[in-house]
Known about the structure:
- Chain A is built from 16 helices and 13 strands.
- With 362 residues, chain A is an alpha/beta fold.
- In chain A, helix 6 (115-124) packs parallel to helix 7 (141-153).
- Chain A is globular, with a radius of gyration of 21 Å.
- The mean pLDDT of chain A is 92.
- Chain B has two domains: 7-145, CATH 3.30.1330.10; 154-320, PurM-like C-terminal domain (Phosphoribosyl-aminoimidazole Synthetase, Chain A, domain 2).
- Chain B contains nine helices and 13 strands.
- Chain B has helices spanning 14-28, 65-78, 99-116, 171-178, 184-187, 198-207, 221-233, 248-257, 279-287, and strands spanning 46-53, 59-60, 63-64, 83-94, 119-128, 136-145, 162-165, 213-215, 236-240, 271-274, 296-302, 309-312, 318-320.
- In chain B, the strands form three sheets. Chain B has a seven-stranded mixed beta sheet with strand order 8-10-7-11-9-12-13.
- In chain B, 50% of the residues are buried.
- The A-B interface holds A 3-4, 7-8, 33, 36, 39-46, 87-88, 90-91, 111, 113-114, 116-117, 217, 219-220, 223, 333-335, 345-346, 353-358, 360-362 and B 180-182, 255, 258, 260, 304-305, 308, 310-320, 322, 325-326, 328-330.
Amino acid sequence: MSRAATMAAFVADLAGHLDRAGRPLNFMEVCGTHTVSACRGGIHSLVPKGVRLLSGPGCPVCVTAQCYIDALIDLGRRDGVILATYGDLVRVTGSGGSLERARSEGAAVEIVSSSLEAVDLAVHNPAREVVFAAIGFETTAPATAVAVEMAATLDLRNFSAMCCHKLVLPAMRALLVDPDVKIDGFLCPGHVSVIIGADAYREVVDHHGRPCVVAGFDPLMIMEGIVALAAQAAGGRAELVNLYPSVVSAGGNPAALELLDRVFEPADSIWRALGTIPASGLELRPEYRRFDAFSRFGLTLPEERDISGCRCGEVITGKAEPAECGLFGKSCTPVEPVGPCMVSSEGACRAWYRYRRAEVVS
Amino acid sequence: MTERIVMAHGGGGELTDLLIRERIRPRFDLPDLDDAAVLPEVSGRLAVTTDGYVVSPLEFPGGDIGRLAVCGTVNDLAVCGAEPRWLTLSLVLEEGLPLEVLERMLDSARAAAEEAGVAIVAGDTKVVPRGQADGMYVTTAGVGVFLRDPLPGVNSIEAGDVLLVSGTIADHGISVMLSRTDQPRLRSAIRSDVAPLAGLIGGLLEAAPLTRFLRDPTRGGLAGVAADLARDSGLGLLLEESAIPVRPGTQWAAELLGLDVLTVANEGKVMAVVPETDVEDALPALRNHRQGGKAAVIGRFVDRDPGLVVLRTKAGGRRMVGKPYGEELPRIC
C-alpha cells in the first residue's frame, strides 16, 4: 500500500473513532519535534474536524522560565565569560535583549552542537570562564552529564553548566491536575522515551486514566499514534501503547539513566506558565556542584516576569492555539519574535507561522 | 615547518610580488600584471555580477571555497541566460593561513573555471591580522555575454506553467553542516553538489527556448525561490513533495539536524519555469546532461491561492511553504 493510501486508511479509521466517541477529542503531542513534523507533513489538513492536536510543554526553549533566560543573558554579557549554547537559544529575548544581540555588542557567545564542544572551549581558553547553557529534557541532559564528568576528569577550573534541565513527566502531571486543561490522551515524546522508556508513562494511564501512545516522527507514524489514541478514547479505555519499539524500549536506556543519576539529582524547577513544579528539574549532585554556574557565579534568579500580551504559556499548556494569540503574525514573527515559541525551531508558534499561517487546507 | 601567510604578503612590497608571481599568476594564465584586464570586443549584451564567499570550513566533501567562488558567480550569470566568460578573483587572507591551503583553493578555482569555460582575468590579494577573518574569504565578479535574448522573467509566468528542478536538493547545505560536526563518520557522509551550471542551462535553453525563468536555489533553498516565484507572479504554486528529488542520506541527515530539506542551500542545481507545452522538450534536455539525470517536474502554477506556495506532502496532507528566516544556522555559502 502506498504512503498516501496508508494515510487515507488511517484518516478513515480516525473519523470512525471520532464518530463512536460522539464528542470532540483533544490530544496533546508533548514533544516539539512532533509538533514540527506534524505541521511539516500537513497532518492538520488531514485530521477530521473534531480532533484537536494541542502542543504541549515539550519544546526545551519554550518551557524555560523567563527568569532563567534573563539570568543566562546577563551571564553571557559578563567580561571574561564565554557562553556556549545550543543554537536555538540565541534569539530568545530576555530583559537584557537576546544572546544574539549581546554577541553583536561584543559578548562571547559560542554556538555549539554538542556539550563536549563547550568542554573543548574551556580547555582552549584557560583564562576565560566557559559556561554551558544546559537546557532541554532527558534527551539533552545525558550530554550535559558527559560534559560535567569530562570536566571533572580533566580537572577543569573554568567550566560550568547553567542547568535548566527539565523532566517530562512532572509537567504532564501538572497539566493533568489543571482543571482548565482538557486532554483525552498524550502522544508521548519519541526521543525522551528512548531515554526514560515507555513504562515511565504507566502512571499517567493507571492513575489519571489517560491513554498514552509513544510514536515516531514520520507523518504516518504520527497519524498512526493519533488513531491509536482515538480508538482508546472512543472505547473509554486508557492503555499504554508503544508504536515506536524499534528505538523505544519499555525500560529506556539504562546507561543514560545511570549517567543521569550519577551526575544529577531531582530539584524543584520553574517552568514558563506552569510555575515551580517540585522535583521537575535536575541539578548537579554535591560532588559536581563546583561545575554549577549558579553557585560558581553566585547567581540568584531574577523574578519571573510575564511578557506583555504573549500567550506562549497558554500555547505550551494546550490552552490556546498560536493563532489565538493577539501578537501572532503581527508583532510576533520569526523575524522579530516576542515569545520563545516563535523563536525555537521546535516552538509551536514558529511551526504554525511557517507551515499553517495561510491555513491552506483545502 | 608549514609556510604561512604573514601580514607582509599583503603589504604591496617584495613579498606580495613573490606571492602573486610564484603562486597565483602561474595558475591563471593572467595577462601581464596591470591594473585592469582588457577584454576582447564582443557582440551582444553583457551581464555582470559579483558575490562574496565566506564558507566555513574552507573545504568540505565535494567542494571548497575555491570551487564555490567560481561556480556561484558563473551560475548567477547562467541563470540570467548569459554565457559566462570572464571572472575576477579577490582574496582576503587571514594571517597564518597555510600557503598549501591557499594553493589548494587556487588550484580548485582554476579547475572549476576550466570546467565552466571561463577565464580568470584579474585579481587582488589582501591580508588581515589573525582573528579578523576565517582562513580566507573570496569575492568573484563575473561577466557574461547574451547569445540570445535575456529570459522574460517572473512576470511572464502564467497559470499552467510548470516548475522543474535539475536534480537532488539540499546536498550542499547538509554537506557543509555535517562537515562541522564532531562526528568523523558524519563529516564525510554527504557530498556538496557545487558545480558550474552553464552547460546544463545552455542545453535547456536550446531545447526549450520559451523558458520563462531560471534560478539557482542557493541560500534559502528551493523554498526561498518558490516563495519568491509565487509572490512575484501573483499566482499560486502547487508543489508535489513526492516528486522533489532528495537523496535518502541527505533526507536522513536533515531530519537529524532538524532541517526542512526545502530550505537548505544548493550550489549545483537550477529551477526552471517553462510553459506546459515545453515540458517534453525541457525535461529530456536536463536529464540527458550528466548534471541533470535526476531532473524532475515538481510543481505547477495555479490560479488559486495567489502568492502562496502549497506543498502536497508525501503523507497526502497539505501545508504552506514559506521563505526561511535569516540565519539560525551557521553560514554555509
